[in-house]
Design a protein that fits this description.
Distance between the termini of chain A: 29 Å
Oligomer: homodimer
Radius of gyration of chain A: 22 Å
Number of helices of chain A: 19
CATH topology of one domain in chain A: FAD/NAD(P)-binding domain
Structural class of chain A: alpha/beta
Helix content of chain A: 25-40%
Number of strands of chain A: 22
Chain lengths: 493, 493
């Protein structure tokens, strides 16, 4: 990707003429101060969903223009460079079994996978005491606390069972959809657990996975999310969602997940226009007109590949249907901040730890080893979600660093305080993301408006991981959604 | 209000020079194709909140420009003219005891009140059978069904009691806020009722009052809403909220509630600019710049007087804080459609009915007599909310009319089918409203982000009925919010 493209200068005028040299993408005259372009399809948003859709369309011989609001492509996928071609991920990181769409795409682009470092013990700091255990034991990722294990085993099994009754392509059609969408996960746990101690541990799952507290989640949405943690031939399970071993955290991508984005973006060249927030989409006379502050692109179809909450901020004419608009008013992005520390080497490995830590009290709920394949430097990242993310937001910059490193020290001792670098990614504060990891359905949302998640509106098609039937909220879901939206468009062109 | 203003032509160029003649409101040159103006304060949105704020600011000698996206002022207040200066209301209609802010404002503008017609019997069509009763009896507005009355009495009393523990200015500080914001109203009713029959009747309250099903509502929000159904010297009660007699439906406004809007708008003259959706608000260098497609207004402060879900669709720079943005991603507008029929005369009155009907099965959940003071013509309006509003949306235009009139006929016989006119107002389908009657908090919303409802962000202040501590969701709350936002601004100017 050229520096010109990266800085979003293309489309602001300078390179408009050059665009005419691309097959099927024509540059035109200015109209009311905006430069005009033409393409078969406009893609709004250069996250994994949009970039995948653009790739599929180009492979089918269609011309595309991809408009991205931010100054970088990738959306919720974003490398933090470590030097030497290595990176730590600020957003989506892992891939795992049944996530073949992202894995195949990475492979096709020459990005390999490697196992997440997972030798040694997990560690937890829960109820004020510290526990170490091997995740190859009977409790897996869960701490071997005898007071909560029976409840944990029962509720996870029950949720898995219930999730089998939820169709991933239409959760609102589950036989018990009304019952399940009428309550929060908190309510269901309250009704199906025996001890307060266990109930207090449930945020350990919801903060990293959804960026929420249990109260924010519709039970039906949680069951859908579990059902979606699989593929067409493997029923989803909660364990596959939250585990490293044989789960969604099993593999990493060489050079960081951002390497996939960089390759997709580079192949688009000047078809990708950064710093071009789309303001309006007009449908009229057999086509669409997609407008940014500086540009109008006329096309046959448009794929809006941003989360529903951000898609709501585009002005559509004619106005979108009732259900689609109401969906986007309610489906906010999760509240997840990611924090990370860099060390000369992954010192926890030498102590017999795998870098996975869980805490019910500190800012950081769950951590992972995110070091490069060769273990140099050592990187730990942590999830700060839900109420903890709001607490983090109110802290000074210095407190954030010291609190996070103190939390890491509870897991692996004082050496954790000697970080070479500390960096955080406050997704809800980022103007063009406004949250993560995924859009959240509270009670009633799927039942009322779920049908509008994917249904095209005239010549507008919807992508983003929130629209995916499998691995919703994951990179795999984003890739799947881009592929599906591209197919929809190709069927019509 | 002049036709020019009504058609939004002012500010598009033609009348820009004339604007310079207004004290304190200066018109400037075009910049990048947009005309420029100056004022002390910009108000975004010409609903009751924004119009009230503008009035207060002008009374204090400040210059204002009010920018409204729609082609009419009023927001959720909108008259349907009946001829002869009479009107039926498409949106907010009634006022009642403790709603002194809207009543005083109306009085100051020369708009009088009159009692809602309430002589004769209520009628209900519930569980397939029809009941008539006087609301002066012991059950009030509730049908005298012995199978549900004990539960109804108990739950309303309990909700009233619980609501006393909710501070209207900070519901998230209630001692039990975490418990109450962790569940839906549906869950609470399930846990506190004995019969399925009673549970099925709860939507009769939530559809007209909130435009939702019980599953969509946080219990904490419902308790706040009840607490807010009063004033500084009268504790809120659910009964005051839903009753006509001594309740929020007790009085009407002469010439329709829209008369208040029309007078406020007329007094603003060219300071009110219709068809000017605000696209961006920049804060920089000690002021704000508020931008529409055709205009930039520079001011010292801005009051954004639109519901949170619509405020989210403005692009702010610098970007809004984390909590404020997340609030607006989750707080969708209710799903309420209003339907109405006009008859030569209010024939139900002659049959001994007051025009109030309740139904658990038909499209229309609750009706009211909305005839002019002199009873000519006769008007019945009905609320179609929540699931029923979505059902309505999927019907053909002809089915909508015939279904609504059939529902009216279940209450008052076949004469109801002979309407001279039928009209509906599908609030969620309206581009610049996108729902009603109020923004809804699902579980977790108030606890996580409630603090951001009113907190100014630099030079941006927030109004709209959703920000009001009393009569949230009502016209009185809108007026209160406009007064409060104006005070905030005046304290700073």
């Amino acid at each position: 990707m050229s520096e010109l493209t990266r800085r979003g200068l293309i489309g602001a005028g300078a390179a408009g003429a050059a665009a005419g040299a691309m097959p099927g993408v024509a540059a035109g005259k200015r109209k009311r101060g905006r430069r005009r372009r033409h393409a078969d399809v406009v893609v709004v948003g250069a996250g994994l969903a949009g970039l995948t859709a653009a790739r599929e369309l180009r492979r089918a011989g269609k011309s595309v223009v991809v408009l991205e609001a931010d100054r970088r492509p990738g959306g919720r996928v974003w490398n933090h460079p470590l030097g030497g071609g290595e990176a730590s991920e600020r957003g989506g990181t892992f891939v795992g079994p049944t996530q073949d769409h992202i894995i195949d795409l990475a492979k096709a682009l020459g990005v390999g996978t490697f196992p997440t470092f997972n030798e040694g013990d997990n560690v937890a700091y829960i109820g004020g005491s510290r526990t170490e255990w091997s995740d190859t034991g009977p409790t897996g990722t869960a701490p071997p606390d005898p007071t909560i294990l029976p409840e944990l085993a029962t509720t996870v099994m029950e949720l898995d069972e219930m999730s089998k009754e939820v169709p991933v392509d239409a959760p609102w059609e589950a036989a018990k959809a009304r019952e399940w969408d009428g309550q929060t996960l908190e309510t269901w746990i309250r009704d199906n657990s025996a001890t307060q101690r266990y109930r207090e541990l449930v945020p350990l799952a919801t903060r990293p996975i959804f960026g929420t507290e249990p109260r924010d989640l519709s039970l039906l949405f949680v069951l859908f999310y579990i059902a979606a943690s699989g593929d067409e031939t493997h029923a989803g399970t909660f364990e596959r969602n939250f585990n490293t071993r044989e789960g969604a955290q099993m593999f990493r991508l060489e050079g960081g997940s951002g390497a996939v984005v960089e390759k997709l973006a580079a192949s688009l060249g000047r078809r990708l226009m950064l710093r071009h927030p789309v303001r309006r989409i007009h449908q009229r006379g057999g086509g669409v007109r997609v407008q940014t502050d500086k540009l109008v692109v006329k096309a046959k179809r448009v794929i809006v590949a941003v989360p529903p909450a951000l898609a709501a901020r585009i002005d559509y004419s004619p106005a979108l249907p009732f259900e689609r608009d109401q969906l986007t008013q309610r489906m906010g992005q999760g509240t997840l901040t990611k924090v990370a520390a860099r060390y000369e080497k992954p010192f926890w490995r030498e102590q017999g730890f795998n870098g996975t830590g869980l805490s019910d009290s500190g800012l950081v709920t769950a951590t992972f080893d995110d070091s490069p394949k060769d273990g140099s430097p050592g990187i730990i990242f942590g999830f700060v979600g839900g109420d903890k993310a709001r607490e983090y937001e109110r802290m000074s910059k210095a407190s954030r660093r010291s609190n996070v490193l103190a939390a890491f020290a509870q897991f692996w001792g004082d050496e954790a305080k000697n970080a070479e670098e500390f960096f955080d990614t406050r997704w809800p504060a980022r103007r063009w993301n406004r949250g993560g990891p995924v859009g959240i359905h509270g009670p009633g949302s799927l039942l009322a408006n779920g049908r509008a998640l994917r249904a095209p509106v005239g010549r507008i098609h919807w992508a983003s991981t929130e629209t995916s039937t499998y691995w919703n909220g994951y990179m795999d879901g984003a890739v799947r959604s881009g592929e599906r939206a591209a197919r929809e468009v190709l069927d019509e062109l």
